[in-house]
Fold this sequence. Notes:
By secondary structure, the chain is α/β, with parallel strands linked by helices. It has one domain (4-54, 67-121): 2,3-Dihydroxybiphenyl 1,2-Dioxygenase, domain 1 (Roll), CATH 3.10.180.10. The protein is built from two helices and eight strands, in the order βαββββαβββ. It has helices spanning 12-25, 75-87, and strands at 4-8, 29-33, 37-41, 48-52, 67-71, 91-98, 105-110, 116-121. The strands form two sheets. It has a four-stranded mixed sheet with strand order 1-4-3-2, with helices on one face. A four-stranded mixed sheet has the order 5-8-7-6. β7 and β8 (116-121) form a beta hairpin. α1 (12-25) packs antiparallel against α2. The longest helix has 14 residues, at 12-25. The protein is globular and about 45 Å long. It starts with a strand and ends with a strand.
Amino acid sequence: MIGYVTFGTNDIQRAAKFYDAIAAEMGTGRMMDFETFIAWGAWDGPAGIAATKPFDGKPASVGNGTMVALQAKDRAQVDKLYEIALANGGSDEGAPGPRGEDGFYAAYFRDPDGNKLNAFTTGA
């Protein structure tokens, strides 16, 4: 079971603005907040997300093929999370829409550091 996922950042304040907005839409907030590390989620809740300056002091970089998927409650929330991402320094990787069959609906975006995320739902 995944407890949380960590993204490297080169600008913790910029990452904080981006993930504060995403977390607020998903009904959660910060659960840990340090000078070089911030985590969003709930203790003993579902998996959370963290942004951190790399421990080794080297620049953060994006993982090729790495993506974190955020489970939205419905299609409207997928659309909203995509809008929030772009309004807070994120970039487009695929506008909201149906993907394949079985009701999978998703939007793809990158955070300001270039880490790839998607918001999805399998509901109608």
